[in-house]
Every structure is written in C-alpha cells, then in structure tokens.
Amino acid sequence: MAQCKPFKAIAFDLDGTLIDSVPDLAAATNATLAELNLTGCSEEQVRSWVGNGAHVLIERALIFALGEAVEAQRLEAAMPIFMKHYEAHLQRHSKLYDGVINVLEQLHSMGYQLAVVTNKPYRFTIPLLDAFGIGHLFTQVLGGDSLDKMKPDPLPLNHLLQQWQLDKTELLMVGDSKNDILAAKAAGISSIGLTYGYNYGEDIGLSGPTAVCDTFSEVLAHINDSQKVMEQ
C-alpha cells in the first residue's frame, strides 16, 4: 500500500502549549495594576485567567482588583498600559516547554506545514517565536487579532484549511485549552489536548479532544503512530 500521512498540516496554540508565558504575563499584569494604583495578583491567578486574549486577561485582573464588574471605558483605558508593560516583559521569564524545539524541527523536516494559532495579539506573537528560535518553522502565524474572530471560534482553523487547500482530515490542532479543542471541533478537524498547560483548572480530556498527551514529545509519537496505522 502506498504511504500516506494522516495529516498534512498541524496548528499549534502558543501560550501553555509551546511556551510557558505566564511569568511574564503576570509581571506585566501586576505592573499594570500598580500603575493604576490597584491591588496586585498572584502568578497562579494569572494562570487561571489566560487563554481568551489580552482583553479578557486584563478584565479579569481588574475585576479581581476592584471587586466588581469593569466598565468598558475603564477596560479600554487599561489596555495600552498593559500592552506597554507586556512588551517590556515579553521574554524575560518565559520559557519553552521540554521537547518543543526537537519535535517542531522533526515535524518540519518530515514535510508537515506548521502554523501557530493563538489568541495572543499578533504584535507579541512573532517576536516571542523569534526570541526562542522557532519562528522560521511556521509558515502561518495567526494572532488573536489577525482575523475577525479568535478561538474558540473556528474561523482561524477554517482560514488555514482554505489557505492551504486542505481537507478537514488533513489538519490537526494541538493545544492546552478547551478553546483549542472547541475550535477544532467546530472546524471539523482532529485535535490533541495537552494536560500541562492553562485550562482554567479543568481536565482537558473533558473537552473531548481526539487524543490527550501529557508531554509535548508525545505529540510526535501520536502523529507517528497515526501514520503507521494509515500505512497498514
């Protein structure tokens, strides 16, 4: 039987999947709160707030600090402050998860098209990927503000399917959050849920990914195993 790949392309989330970025997000969030003369928060709190984009992160931080709902005008006024501080803290304490470079390089050498699909603003995504020496491995990078909608909406994944002219069976989504899994389901593609990232304290398996991996290296093993099944 002729050999064929189960997937032709793989989309990866960024925060909590490739990079542990919470230490820098927490530092920027606390610097924002301090500039606004508000009570700071813990790194663990920030871990439970990330995943839905910068606006939601700062909204949650402000709600915590104020003890009440935040008016839209106040939130919008806080966003430039956060952006300023996060740009200053972008890669001070963040780090790649174990196995990320090795797996990405192997997948790239095997001919898979790789993409990043994140809810992080695009202006921070490219510098962060380049800072860790992995930006060149991706042929598509979509930030949370690159399109009209972001995860859990399927638009970013549908965009990849269209841009790369892929069948839904040929694209795989890898992420640590239910937003990644919900987006994949809505797009009709397979997904891998990672247990080590940021998922609001919930078991990623409850979101129903196609497969669950405890480490990033297991992603490669899962893809290789899937290929062996296709070749039988």
Automatic annotation (TrEMBL):
Its EC number is 3.1.3.18. It catalyses: 2-phosphoglycolate + H2O = glycolate + phosphate. Keywords: Carbohydrate metabolism, Hydrolase, Magnesium, Metal-binding. Pathway: Organic acid metabolism; glycolate biosynthesis; glycolate from 2-phosphoglycolate: step 1/1. SUPFAM superfamilies: HAD-like. Mg(2+) binds at D13, D15, D176. Its cofactor is Mg(2+). Belongs to the HAD-like hydrolase superfamily. CbbY/CbbZ/Gph/YieH family. Specifically catalyzes the dephosphorylation of 2-phosphoglycolate. Is involved in the dissimilation of the intracellular 2-phosphoglycolate formed during the DNA repair of 3'-phosphoglycolate ends, a major class of DNA lesions induced by oxidative stress. This is Phosphoglycolate phosphatase. The gene is gph.
